[in-house]
Amino acid sequence: MDYKNAGVDIEAGYKSVELMKEHIAKTMRSEVLTNIGGFSGAFSMAGFKSMEKPTLVSGTDGVGTKIKLAFILDKHDTVGIDCVAMCVNDIACAGAEPLFFLDYIACGKNYPEKIATIVSGVAKGCELSGATLIGGETAEHPGLMPEDEYDLAGFAVGIVDEKDLITGQNIKAGDTLIGIASSGVHSNGFSLVRKIFDMSEASLNKYYDELGMTLGEKLLTPTRIYVKALKAVKDAGVTIKGTSHITGGGFQENIPRMLPDGIVAKVEKTSYEVPAIFKLMAKEGNVEESMMYNTYNMGLGMVLAVDPADADKTVAALKSAGEEAYIIGEAASGEKGVILC
User: Fold this and answer.
1) Angstrom distance (rounded) from CA 134 to CA 313
2) CA 118 to CA 17: how far, in whole Å?
3) Could you say which residues of the chain have pLDDT below 70?
4) I need a labelling partner for 76 at 20 to 30 A (CA). Which of 83, 116, 119, 278 fits?
5) From start to end of the chain, where are the E strands?
């Protein structure tokens, strides 16, 4: 009896690392002091000494049950982008620049080519956010999960000067709310998605005119990464007062997280066009509008609060960064929460 007969293939682990190295190399920053394959990753902070009070900001998350669609369609090159996005978007909400990312893959059986494909997506997400993929772990769990399944989670660390932290505490009545378009459902609410639609390969490969692609292609579209977009706003000279990453819980749970007490967000539903995928989900699943807004991003992956005088400048900066952005409402006096108008 040996470890391989027990279900853990050490040689497959070595091969996975070798296959993923080319993807990881594309994410390297000059501050990285260690090589892939060591026990830890070292990152120099020397370049941030000019900050008055350098402050680390961290975030961790996973892809959730969206990953089931990757299993069904045998498409594993985009879920890594989702994993990175869920982490770096959160720390970007604090005004932080992502520095490095670590991933964790738990699998029933290590298929090196599949693992390398997953990591290629993680590396792509790191490239899009400017973070280094500094390390990670692939763990075989025979007997704990099916051989052809895996789970993916990650952890990101960023930095910001304390004086530049975005806290939302300075948001006041009359401030403008700006929404940045999402790429689709992103990585939340897929337990409901999987109840709305038949999760078969045939169903996911069905083409919808209103989507302009198959259902599976739309649902697997990776979560948009907003790090560079928010940096473009800052570089335009705008002070972002508050930022909300619209994830699980939709508008109702996430927008209030950036608001101080005594401020309510008034969002005009007609200020932008809700994407077709959400209309299709509501129709096919007979999901009430209130539940849709309380579960999904409804086409807005980020919401910012800025001074009214900076609203047009903010939208222009976001559009110059390749984003679609809309003025969607305003902050007002009232009990902390969201009012959909």
Assistant:
1) 36
2) 12
3) 1-9
4) 278
5) 54-62, 97-107, 132-140, 150-161, 176-181, 207-208, 213-214, 242-245, 263-267, 300-306, 325-333, 337-340
The strand pairing partners of 155, in sequence order, are 60, 102
Q: End-to-end CA distance of the chain: give it in Å, rounded.
A: 66
**Tokens representing residue 284 in the block:** 């096919």
Q: Are 179 and 300 in contact (CB under 8 A)?
A: yes
pLDDT tens digits for 65-95? 999 999 999 999 999 999 999 999 999 999 9
Give the model confidence (pLDDT) of 31-43 as tens digits. 999 888 788 999 9
CA angle, residues 148, 152, 155, in degrees to nearest 5: 165
CA–CA distance, 183 with 295 (Å, rounded to integer): 16
- Alpha helical stretches, state H, 28-180: 67-73, 79-92, 112-129
**Residue 192, CA distances (Å) to 64, 200, 290, 292, 302 in order:** 12, 15, 14, 10, 21
Three-class SS state of 121: helix
CA 85 from centre of chain: 3
CA 191 from chain center: how many Å? 17
Q: What is the pLDDT of residues 164-186, one digit of tens each?
A: 999 999 999 999 999 999 999 99
85-113 CB burial, b ≥16 within 10 A, e <16: bbbbbbbbbbbbbbbbbbbbbbbbbbbbe
Q: Take residue 196 and report the two structure tokens written for it.
A: 């709305």
> Exposed/middle/buried for 258, CB within 10 Å: 0-12, 13-18, 19+?
buried
- Coil, strand or helix at 327: strand
Contacts of 200 (CB under 8 A, 6+ apart): 72
Say how many residues make up the chain.
Answer: 341
Could you write out the three-class secondary structure of 147-174?
CCCEEEEEEEEEEEEHHHCCCCCCCCCC
